[in-house]
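hey m, so remember when u said the tokens were messed up on ur end? i reran from scratch. heres the input so u can diff it against urs
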Amino acid sequence: MGLSDIKVLLVQLRKDPVMRDHEYRGLLRSGRLRPQQVTRVNGLEEPLEMAHLDGKQLLFIGGSGDYSVLDELPFTRVLTDMLQKCRLDDLPVLGSCWGAQFMAHVLGGKVITDPETEETGTYLMYKTPEADADPLFRDFPSAFLAQIGHHERIAALPPGAVNLVKSDKTSMQAFTWPGSSQYALQFHPELDKTGLVERVIHYRESYAADPLVFDLIINNAKESPWTDHLVERFIERIVLPCYSRKELALPKYR
């Protein structure tokens, strides 16, 4: 099995079709994936079913600032069941922004609305000591740039989880469990600098209605080489080894 064999389920919660496509294209770019490798389900407009996981090697939960993880959405129960199944069966999951907050919330952590710690733009991230031994982040520099935009933040991790990344404003930017194939990233692994600028322009009224704030975000947007293809790195470092272990564990028949 290689990168080209991976099938991804992308769960989205975006009413705006322009931004749904934008998130989808960002995932394709960051993962160096072909369109036929990704199945999209917009949980706001179509039923999300457990069967959507069949034949998939990665569940990617997208983000949206329009909703809180504390809201009861049409797909909340099914997505919760999916996460529980992935935890039980060690199936790879990557949560982005809202997706990361949802993982924290339903798996026993805490998410709060905290206007003082909102971040929109390109921000400096810092590895925690736990990241030095983590297969996804171990060879990252101690500080790196990432694209981010959030209203809420993770205030407490789920039981057993470890914090991998922090920023000056937010102490929990990425978490996983030791030896796990499920990761939650509050920053956006599907965005590069261009994608961030396009998204901020589109959501200007909700994220940067003040012209001074808008100009500050756009003018301070920077390239983020360490996270630009983080989805591809996740597939190579986490997903493929996970399924190699499963294949080795299968009984051999003559």
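this time it looks ok to me. The radius of gyration is 17 Å. if urs says something different then somethings off w ur setup not the seq
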